[in-house]
Amino acid sequence: MSQNIETITTKLKRWPASVAWGPGVSIPLAVVAAYCGALLLVLQQARKLPAGVNLAFVNALWPWLLAGSAIALGIALALRQKPLAAAPETPAAAWRPTDWLLLLLPLAPVVQYLLNNTQQVSFPQNLFLLLGFLAVSVLLVVVLPKLLSRFANPAVLRILSVIFLFMITNMAVLSASFLWFAEGDLRIQLGIMLALIVLFALLYPSRHRNLLLLLVTAFFVSNTVAQVDLGKQIPVSSDIHDHPFFSAVPADPETKPNIYLLVYDSYVANETMLQYGIDNSEQELYLQQHGFTMYPHTYSIGSYSVVSIGSLMNASLDFYGDTRIGTSGAGVVHQIFQRMGYRTYGYFASDFFFQEVGSSYDVSFPQERPASLVLLDSILLGEFRFDIGFDASTAKQFEQQKLDLFGNVPADPVFLYAHSYAPGHSQNSGECLPNETKLFEQRLAVANVEMRTDLDLLLANDPTAIVIVAGDHGPYLSKNCYATGRGGYTINDINRFDIQDRFGSFLAIRWPEGAQFEAYDEITVLQDLYPAILAYMHQDASILQYRVPPVTMFYPEYISDAAVDNGIIQGGKNDGEPLFLSQP
Known about the structure:
- By secondary structure, this protein is α/β, with parallel strands linked by helices.
- It is built from 20 helices and 9 strands.
- The strands form 2 sheets. The protein has a 7-stranded mixed sheet. It has a two-stranded antiparallel ribbon with strand order 8-9.
- Strand 8 and strand 9 form a beta hairpin.
- The radius of gyration is 29 Å and the shape is elongated.
């Protein structure tokens, strides 16, 4: 035993001198620092992405890498090593054909993201993204270590390249796991990185390399298999024209007013606002003074924009294929109005609502960009954020598009759906920002100004139109500011406020002056809107029978599987009580 201890001690004393500090440590660290610089250029210049977890990570990492490189270079000079001398690999660390399996480590998270976004990203675009990440992996893990082998130890550079790539591609997974938003925890990130370096350093240049490759392969396979058959499927029907609502609405209404649906994202009624400490009664009074009928007790059957608006525009629980069919302009309601001679308009601050399926509006803004670019930006950013793809300049153009239409009303009947992204919901990381509610209040002020600007111009130029002001769902400001079912909350933790905060909506309708709409004004959920409007336009109350069941359906895990049925809470602390307590 004592002899073994002495042997180990002797080796440790000789270890610093035996390490090729220049090519084995200093230069590989400097190369990875260069990777950081290249990624910063991509994030900030090529893609012009906002502050994100990967951006913060590489900004914090490169000084450490350069400091380590400088220290290693100093040690090399102190030991009189040639810092740029060639550092041939030992036979144990030399490249083998099986080393191609190393590429599976950084590709595993990429495959996970692609499988989770098959509805939004087409197969050719998915394949293009996968091949792109594969090409980058080959360049950094295979090609560059070979090209730099005269100056840097190829095995060391290969290991560091694999681990760096994995940290970047896997960052979105870490962000979701640790609830990071815009910035991660460097201690956790460096801890994971160092643990991988130790694992690779022990196994890769030894007779246990096959064990390392087996672990990498097992991780890739298990991670990929875990993405198959995720969650429940949204109901789908085969043909949109089979919908009885489509057949029940004649093509010749009694009246054909222009229809304007102005949605302000995550806007809710004042009863809910007051629970945030915000009094929005002045804005509601503005609407009332301009002839709007308020519907303060409405809620949505879905707590997410696409399913909330999609089910609204289909007047159905079915989506007829992609969930964006309704939001993209090809829904049942759109086709009913087109059949009646309406020209449909879809104006948005980004192409989110018709990504991959394209726009079916007669007139739409903005132009669609490939959904694969949105997914690419999310991976590069290191987090899947709701605001990826939203551009400030596009948002301003969107607002101008609305004002141009309101100031110059076309002769043909108009059906418009415009979706503003203010006030907007929380950042959906699963952890509230310290000032989350304050940020919402600031965005609400912006939305209120936008709303008044819209309506002042629209009502002045088209006073006989039906104008709808709506919010699609709540802003997620209670509990963990996201899905409570994913935050450790049980149904017993859920109260009335939590449900309003996620499924509550906003609805105000300005019916034409003197319109006799009361007989058709049966609205419980946001999705009742168009049966009511079309029943009024046709003076036919039988159309109301095609309203959807007033039961919260989509994403019930956002309130730990509590529900609302016909305005009554099902489950939680307020089980059996009304969702709203205020008087109409």
